[in-house]
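Standup notes
- DV: blocked on the single-chain target, sequence here:
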Amino acid sequence: MRDLGKNPVKVAVVGLGRWGNTIAGVLERTPGLALTACFTRNPEKRAEFAARFGCGNEQSYESLLARGDIEALIVTAPNNKHADLTITAAARGKHVFVDKPIATTIPDAKAMIAACRKAGVKLAIGASSRRLRGHRLCKKLVEDGLLGTVALVETNYSKESGLNYTPDNWQYFKDGSPGGPLMQVAIHQIDNLYYLFGPIKRVSAEFRKMMSKSENPDVCVLWLEFESGLLGMLGTSFITPGLGQERHPYFINAYGDQGSFHHDRWTGTEVWRKGAQDAERIDYEEFKGFDYLGEELRDFAEAIATDRSPEVDGEAGMHVLAVVLAAMRSSELKRPVELKEILNLRG
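- DV (later): unblocked, structure below
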């Protein structure tokens, strides 16, 4: 088996905006991966990134792919560029890690999965939120049977980013980030629900445009039916401030016949057990030390080294995308939409 300590996976970052720089910083502290090169169309950004992180600077995507020392790409480019970048990279034998969402359409997602499968390379989707230590704890609580039969889940992830987008931002446009906050931030909560409670079967949704000036809505509510029969609700707003720069509304609550948990990313997890007189605060002692962004990148490297599937593969990414698109279709048609309708769409 490949020793990643002695022979790390050499990667290139494609897309050098805010998140590309964040991921590069994580790569610097993540064993098993070596940041080797970068690419974006803007020469000034390329030069600045290369100088900051001490990596190569390629003038074209084709020249980047032609490098024999590059084994994998970390794609943090705009959502609607993911498919073309991934398909081209797979054809050149490169493994691909794509930050969420996998793509903006199901045909694109299917084409990405097929291209990587044909080329025998790994496709991983950056669904980092499920790796937060609090969500790992929630998974343990569910698996340990704390809730008994789970009947209902509710979640929210809201920010005020929608108020800041202008035509200079790709997130401003419908083809860049359709669905607004659902595609851009609350897609993390869809993946969390999928991770904790399994596949989603049917979606009903409403979208509204309240205050933002972009082409996209800035608030939506989803009603979810899981394959298991569990019911859920998800809300998201792109006009809602948090506390300071980072502490935006972000929670998951789950209710069963034996208990419930109430998890807030910032304040922790509270458990209500059947028959108990008081709620129980659960600490994170066994989950301390988690580097959630580093964890997903390490998983990608290990998947390459051991020839296994990443935790969040293309199929998982496509399921989550299908929930977003089903919600958009539901709001348009004013009726519930089953995921199979979305997954079977052509064109």
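- Follow-up: The CA atoms of residues 150 and 256 lie 4 Å apart.
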